[in-house]
Design brief:
Blueprint: E1 3-4, H1 5-12, H2 16-24, E2 32-33, E3 39-41, H3 43-57, H4 62-70, H5 72-110, H6 116-123, H7 130-139, H8 144-155, H9 158-180, H10 188-204, H11 210-222, H12 224-228, H13 240-256
Antiparallel strand pairs: 1-3, 2-3
Helix pairs in contact: 1-2, 4-5, 5-7, 6-9, 9-10, 10-13, 11-13
Length: 261
């Protein structure tokens, strides 16, 4: 069975020009030509083209492919191993670039206008997960509180962030002390800590009503990314997110229905 250059181009999803180039380069010369001089390819030619396209997909140059195809047994394995190392290095480089891009996007999404070095100095282990930041922005997009929070976050100076993160770190110490001591989630101490957290949000970002605080705390339980904004993974304990949520709900009920004096 013989195939014309256009048929082969269609099979392989390459251009006729590419096949002409492979022919001129001596990489894929058709087995025969028609009486009118047109290129005709047989099954062996198609198999060779498949090999060429495979190596091209891996990033080999035409000269490298020609070397491999001259003696596949002698060259293919070493060439593939070398290419595997190159690809692994390229993947690592692209991952680093992706992380840089993610951090740049994150600044826009979170409103935290600090340099990477400043972010490391201020936030330490606390990091903003981009996917969560994006989802949260969509979830609260129509919220006046979300808009105010983003605007205030963008206006915070490095010293503002340092102060608010210092307050948050001190709060976490007290939270972990209460949790480790076995204080009940709906007890006075835990509810007071929940109220501190609510007031912290109000002070630095946006007015946080008891109902809003409930919804924020519910995210702590259902989405680890949300809780990681409050307690870094290295400081978390099993059941801590649920403990905080219970304290927040108990405090919200207490705040909604203060005791008669």
């Amino acid at each position: 069975m013989r195939y014309s250059v256009r048929q082969v181009a269609s099979f392989a999803q390459v251009t006729v020009r590419t096949l002409h180039h492979y022919d001129k380069a001596g990489l894929l010369m058709p087995s025969t030509r028609s009486g009118a001089g047109y290129r005709l390819y047989d099954e062996a030619d198609l198999a060779r083209l498949q090999q060429i396209l495979f190596y091209r997909e891996l990033g080999f140059s035409l000269d490298e492919i020609a070397t491999i195809l001259k003696d596949p047994q002698a060259n293919a394995l070493d060439q593939l191993r070398a290419r595997q190392r190159q690809l692994a290095e390229e993947i690592s480089r692209l991952q680093r670039l992706a992380e840089v891009a993610e951090r740049a996007i994150e600044v826009q999404q979170t409103g935290v206008t600090l340099t990477p070095q400043e972010r490391f100095e201020v936030f330490g282990e606390i990091s903003f997960d981009l996917s969560y930041a994006t989802e949260a922005r969509l979830k609260w997009a129509d919220s006046e509180g979300q808009r105010e929070s983003m605007a205030r976050a963008a206006a915070h100076s490095k010293e503002d962030w340092r102060q608010l993160m210092g307050e948050a770190a001190a709060w976490r110490v007290r939270l972990l002390d209460a949790f480790d001591a076995g204080e009940p989630g709906d007890g006075e101490r835990a509810m007071d800590l929940a109220e501190e957290h609510r007031q912290h949000i109000t002070r630095w970002f946006t007015t946080c009503s008891p109902d809003m605080h409930r919804r924020i705390a519910d995210d702590f339980v259902t989405d680890p990314r949300a809780f990681a904004l409050v307690v870094p993974p290295s400081e978390q304990r099993p059941g801590l997110a649920a403990y905080v949520a219970k304290a927040v709900h108990a405090n919200a009920s207490r705040t909604d229905s203060p005791e008669e004096t």
